[in-house]
Automatic annotation (TrEMBL), chain A:
<protein>
    <submittedName>
        <fullName>RNA polymerase II mediator complex component SRB4</fullName>
    </submittedName>
</protein>
TrEMBL record, chain B:
<comment type="function">
    <text>Component of the Mediator complex, a coactivator involved in the regulated transcription of nearly all RNA polymerase II-dependent genes. Mediator functions as a bridge to convey information from gene-specific regulatory proteins to the basal RNA polymerase II transcription machinery. Mediator is recruited to promoters by direct interactions with regulatory proteins and serves as a scaffold for the assembly of a functional preinitiation complex with RNA polymerase II and the general transcription factors.</text>
</comment>
<dbReference type="GO" id="GO:0006357">
    <property type="term" value="P:regulation of transcription by RNA polymerase II"/>
</dbReference>
<keyword id="KW-0804">Transcription</keyword>
<dbReference type="InterPro" id="IPR019095">
    <property type="entry name" value="Mediator_Med18"/>
</dbReference>
<comment type="subunit">
    <text>Component of the Mediator complex.</text>
</comment>
<comment type="similarity">
    <text>Belongs to the Mediator complex subunit 18 family.</text>
</comment>
<keyword id="KW-0805">Transcription regulation</keyword>
<dbReference type="Pfam" id="PF09637">
    <property type="entry name" value="Med18"/>
</dbReference>
<dbReference type="GO" id="GO:0003712">
    <property type="term" value="F:transcription coregulator activity"/>
</dbReference>
């Protein structure tokens, strides 16, 4: 810009012709170097070389060397001395100024005594009466022509010097302004770019001169909402700086880990790389993510505190959520760039997907909570009361925990049922069940007033329910198990609701609410056992009655159905007892001969040579007779 | 409950701009609101015993005194407010059309969008005359609201001793900022009824464009209200008015919120 600056700032120096300068210069050279005769090329070269070789700093070095060697005490001395000097100078200057003031005051006291008196020192007032000094204009004696010429030249020189200095200053400030304008343009371009990306740019409420960008979440808790605003400052070269104030610049995120049987088996992804992490956009995005993650963790800790009764524990920077007996989920807030120290602990990546899913769910749930906040905020408020409204804890961990617990319970029950059915199949019994996991989760019907996303998420905040239904062996008997998990409202945890329809045992009523999966499994196994006993008894009833084949065939009747005991009475004294036991591994049937005909069953037992027993397992490959064949076989009326 | 209010008048040309400003201030989208407002006036049923006042020797029981005070105390106008939607308007022509097609078909239920007076929800809003002589620069008044049965409201109101006076429409947008409800609204009048007798509320609504604003220039009223549960709690009342003053400061450059003239909000029936 200074090149294109056409306004002449520097004073024009007119080259005056000085015709008689040469004789003067010759005279000067003669005086300095002596006669021209002695000046040869060599001598001149030697002089130049000497000048060149001479170290320009030599003198100064010598002067500084001793200064460098002074030790600290001397330096202190020097410091005090210098300070004393400075003070002395200042005192002197002060005194001189006071003298000058006194002088001027005394001089003025002739004309304005009242005013001048104020600025006079007390001493002067004592020694000199007011108005004792006067000033008059005197005509100076005329100066000589040469002196006038001198003054003229000197003043001309001064003026030129001042003009030069002013011109330099102007040009310097012009360049400074130019760079300033360039950097300002760059700053505003970047601010515009940020705004065009859709970020909200506004003035800072505290610092009205600065611009800020809003990247936080309006519906967040106030401390996090207020952190969602950062100043856009200008660096010296005009690039944009994101100034978050006192908040540390670290990028943090919530990490989810899964621990199975005391060992880490999964970890969620901690760092996801931003494409342009160094651009201002990238930095804003990072700041936004960090504030979201920190709020997420804050809210989780808040929620975890009220979940202490459900086994959730919190440490300073860790939340532990038990999912099932052997699995728990750990959530903590980590720095993204700190690397992955958990690598050594992590033994497998088996549950990485689960950890990722949990990580995504809690984030979705926080976004949902934000939406709920907006909804609550825009409703007409209740009347003002002295009581403060309690902000309920967000539902972040509770739905996740409910889901995982529910899944675990349903899985365990399902596998138990599968095993039982396998065992029964191996014994040649036909039995089946259908499971409907998460039958309570229904895809929402579209509702105009509520956005679809919200209705979808809302489904997962309700209690979960799964159902198992199946038919038992005897016709018309069936069972149904409802598994409900609820961790949101007070009756928390999972419970099983079993309903059975056993026409042969109308008195059997299952317990209304079973809390433990093992108990539920035991109850189901018991009903199965009852059913098997009934089947065997029915079988015995059917076959002998119809035909005369009943001769020689014993019929079984249930003696203690709840213990799996049956009894067959025969006329020939070959009374028999059968014991059926069912577990998830195997079905065992044992028969014992029974001596004595006491109906109460307390007859003395004498084991003959052949107590028979047969068991079926789901995994046994060898072919065995089915249960019914076995029963037929042992029903023969012989010992 | 008490209500603290500040008002401002907003010219029509400023309306859109102010909507934007309020949306920014409250960080929410405006909620459009259309309300039917029916004005009822309390009256004394004829045949009521009016006891003489001033007969000092006539000593009355405390209960009787209180009852008399209630019965003979001030009479007030009250409003019955019913929310409607824009789709409800102009249903007259629709039902009239269907009526001309088939006179036997009942009005309600023939058309989905037609206005159904029988299902109109109502709310009773009682507002006292603003308190006099308060130092504070806000309008303070006693208020109470109650839900009313749906449908034809004139009959129960008559039974309670209120007679129908007139009705109008209020159109506006609601914002919520913390505890303050900001209602930017204007009053719309029904077209002059040519034949309809004005002894009861309308059963059909005219087309929306037929409504005319009460203020000819189409200007709006900005009302900032905050309700306090317990009006005798000075601390709360003070907090509430502080909140209102805070809003007034924030809106200073846009509108001037101020106290309303007390007597213009007089709801007493003389």
């Amino acid at each position: 810009m200074s090149d294109s600056f056409t306004l002449p700032l520097r004073p024009l120096l007119e080259k005056r012709e000085r015709p008689d300068t040469l004789p003067q210069e010759i005279a000067q050279i003669n005086a300095q170097y002596g006669s021209f005769r002695d000046v040869t090329e060599e001598s001149l070269r030697a002089t130049i070389a000497e000048e060149k070789n001479k170290d320009p700093w030599a003198e100064e070095d010598e002067a500084e060397k001793p200064a460098a060697e002074v030790d600290t005490t001397e330096r202190m001395d020097q410091l005090y001395k210098r300070r004393a000097e400075i003070t002395q100078f200042a005192m002197q200057a002060h005194m001189e100024a006071l003298f000058a003031l006194d002088f001027v005051s005394l001089l003025l006291s002739k004309h304005t005594p009242r005013q001048a008196e104020l600025s006079m020192s007390a001493y002067l007032k004592q020694v000199a009466p007011l108005g004792s000094l006067n000033a008059e204009i005197v005509n100076p004696p005329p100066k000589s022509e040469a002196a006038l010429q001198d003054i003229k030249t000197v003043s001309r020189g001064w003026r030129i010097q001042n003009f030069n200095a002013a011109a330099n200053k102007l040009l310097r400030s012009a360049t400074r302004l130019e760079t300033e304008v360039a950097s300002e343009t760059k700053y505003w371009d970047e601010v515009l770019a940020v705004k065009n990306k859709g970020w909200k740019v506004c003035r800072l409420p505290r610092d009205r001169q600065a611009l800020g960008v809003q990247y936080g979440f309006l519906e967040a808790t106030p401390i996090f909402r207020d952190r969602g605003l950062a100043a856009l400052r200008r660096a010296d070269d005009g690039s944009l700086l994101l100034d978050k104030g006192l908040i540390p610049q670290k990028i943090r995120t919530v990490r989810v880990r899964v621990k199975t049987q005391g060992q880490f088996t999964g970890c969620s992804k901690v760092s996801w790389s931003l494409t342009n992490a160094d651009s201002i956009e990238g930095r804003i995005l990072q700041a936004r993510d960090t504030v979201y993650e920190e709020e997420l963790f804050h809210e989780m800790v808040r929620e975890a505190r009220i979940m202490g009764s459900q086994g959730v524990t919190t440490r300073q920077n860790l939340v532990q959520v038990p999912v099932s007996e052997e699995q728990e989920v750990l959530l903590d807030l980590v720095d993204v760039d700190q690397g992955e120290p958990a690598d050594t602990e992590s033994l497998s990546n088996e549950h990485d997907t689960l950890a990722d899913a949990v990580a995504h769910s809690i984030r979705i749930l926080l976004a949902y909570a934000h939406r709920q906040n907006l909804r609550r905020r825009t409703q007409p408020p209740p009347p003002l009361t002295p009581k403060r409204r309690h902000v309920p804890e967000y539902q972040l961990l509770r739905p996740v925990m409910a889901y995982l617990q529910h899944t675990a319970h349903v899985r365990s029950l399902e596998s138990f049922m599968g095993d039982i059915v396998g065992v029964l199949k191996a014994a040649g019994l036909r039995c089946g069940f259908t499971s409907a996991p998460f039958s309570s989760v229904r895809l929402p019907t579209v509702h105009a007033s509520v956005p679809k996303v919200e209705t979808l998420v809302k489904q997962f905040l309700m209690p979960f329910e799964s159902t198992f239904t199946g038919n038992l062996l005897t016709p018309e008997s069936s069972f149904c198990v409802k598994v409900r998990t609820n961790t949101v409202s007070p009756p928390s945890g999972t419970y099983f609701e079993i309903t059975v329809n056993l026409p042969h045992h109308p008195e059997v009523k299952p317990p209304s609410r079973i809390g433990l999966p093992t108990e539920a499994a035991a109850a189901l196994a018991h009903f199965m056992l009852l059913d098997i006993v009934t089947t065997i008894a029915n079988k015995g009833v059917k076959s002998p009655e119809g035909t005369d084949a009943g001769k020689g065939v014993l019929s079984w009747e249930a003696a203690y159905a709840h213990h799996g005991e049956l009894r067959a009475l025969s006329g020939s004294g070959n009374n028999k007892k059968m014991k059926v036991s069912l577990s998830r591994e195997e079905l065992t049937v044992q028969t014992y001969p029974l001596r004595g005909v006491d109906v109460s069953g307390s007859a003395e037992k004498g084991k003959t040579a052949n107590p028979r027993s047969q068991s079926w397992r789901a995994d046994s490959s060898e072919s065995r007779p089915s249960l019914m064949e076995f029963v037929e076989e042992v029903s023969q009326d012989r010992p | 409950m008490h209500e603290l209010l500040l008002f401002a008048s907003v010219p029509a040309h400023q309306h859109h701009e102010l909507l934007q400003q309020l949306a920014g201030l409250t960080a929410m989208q405006p909620r459009h609101r259309l309300e039917r407002r029916l004005v009822f006036k309390a009256y004394r049923k004829p045949g009521l015993v009016t006891t003489r006042v001033g007969a000092s020797q006539d000593v009355q029981g405390a209960d009787l005194q209180r009852l008399n005070k209630m019965l003979n105390g001030g009479m007030y106008y009250t409003q019955v407010v019913g929310p409607v939607t824009k789709a409800d308007f102009g249903a007259t022509s629709l039902s009239a059309m269907s009526a001309s097609h088939d006179a036997d078909v009942s009005m309600s239920g023939t058309d989905q969008s037609s206005y159904c007076y029988e299902n109109q929800p109502w709310k009773l809003e009682f507002r006292d005359i603003p308190e006099a002589g308060t130092r504070s620069a806000v309008t303070t008044r006693l208020m109470a609201s109650a839900s009313l049965p749906k449908g034809d409201i004139a009959v129960p109101m008559n039974a309670w001793g209120y007679s129908f006076v007139t009705e109008y429409m209020v159109e506006g947008d609601v914002f919520v900022q913390n505890d303050i409800v900001i209602f930017l609204h204007r009053v719309l009048l029904y077209p002059q009824a040519e034949s309809q007798d004005l002894h009861g509320p309308r059963r059909q609504l005219p087309a929306y464009h037929e409504l005319t604003p009460l203020e000819r220039t189409g200007s709006y009223v900005l009302q900032a209200a905050i309700t306090v549960q317990d009006g005798s709690n000075q601390e709360m009342m003070k907090t509430a008015s502080q909140h209102l003053f805070g809003l007034r400061e924030q809106l200073k450059s846009a509108v001037r919120l101020e106290q309303a003239d007390r007597l213009s909000l007089d709801t007493r029936a003389k």
